[in-house]
Amino acid sequence: MEVTPISTPPALAVSAVPAPGSTQAFSLGGRTLAQLTYSSTGTVPTSVTARYYSGTNPPAPFAAGARYANAYFTFSNDNADGSGYTYQPTLTYDPASLGTIASEGAQQISQRSADNSGYDTYATTVNPAPVRTLVGPSQFTRLGLLAISDQAAPLPVELVRFEAVRQGSDVVLSWTTATELANKEFEVQVSLDGQSFRALGLVAGAGNSATPRSYSFTDREAGKSGLRYYRLRQLDQQGTATFSPVRTVLFDAPAGLLVAWPNPYQQTVQLRLVLPQATAAATLTLLDAVGRQVLNQELGPLPAGASQPALEPTFFSSLPTGVYLLRLATAAGVQTLRLIKE
Questions:
Q1: Which of 63, 205, 269, 276 has the fewest CB neighbours in a 10 Å radius?
Q2: What is the 3-state secondary structure (H, E, C) of the chain?
């Protein structure tokens, strides 16, 4: 049921006039209900009036399938001035006003569009009891009606392609985005074990884009060998990071590559083998700290490239804590790895 207010609620008390880099707090009866934190750039409005509509559904039309809280805020630019500024809203919410929203954690801040044709929803941080606030991103560019909904917020970047291709001793990484929202940059990362990644370089993002964008980066590091893992760390203008799927590229290794993770481990451990060429036989042995053999496992034929042999989990979980030495023997040679059981 939509409830229409009998009258316009009173303006909320305001703590200060707007100023670049400052925060305005809006309160009712001594309780802060909303805050606007302005960026340090641009010209902010000279006067802002806020009102809180409690127990009232925001005006339609709504996003299909979305549910809205029974409360909303309006922020008016009294003198219709200011330009080039952004702000970050913080809204206090009342659990009793969630309406049909399933949970507090599902709440998002939605802003009514400038032409009143619908709502735009933003990724929101929910601070539950005792604070009970919703914090939006620092990318709002106009004042208006802010509602609370469970509409899914758009992802900062829609990545539709990410490839890593070996070209001689280099690796060319290329990717394409369908859309971008407040996208600051991509950090290209590499790993030698698929677990610990480090940065290779940065590629600037397009900011906001509704059309496909293509990017590329070349890994020219010298001395590549074995299997290299690549991923993208996308960072938006609010400092939120998301990660791409991982891509792998194989370089020749003299006798192969043996990787264990996690290392150190506590209960279970996984192995990944990377061989420059297929082998008819491979033997895995495990030695304890004094050189005694505690495991000898025939792995059988293995393909070129990466493989993950099946290990007996109860064996590794039952080992005493300590330092061990794993050895992988193939026709090409022997690879060793220090393994720690905690």
A1: 63
A2: CCCCCCCCCCECEECCCCCCCCEEEEEECCEEEEEEEECCCCECCCCEEEEEEECCCCCCCCCCCCCEEEEEEEEEECCCCCECCCEEEEEECCHHHCCCCCCHHHCEEEEECCCCCCEEEECCEEECCCCCEEECCCCECCCCEEEEECCCCCCCEEEEEEEEEEECCEEEEEEEEEEEEEEEEEEEEEECCCCCCEEEEEEEEEEEECCCEEEEEEECCCCCCEEEEEEEEEEECCCCEEECCCEEEEECCCCCEEEEECCCECCCCEEEEEECCCECCCEEEEECCCCCEEEEEECCCECCEEECCCCCHHHHHHCCCEEEEEEEEECCEEEEEEEEEC
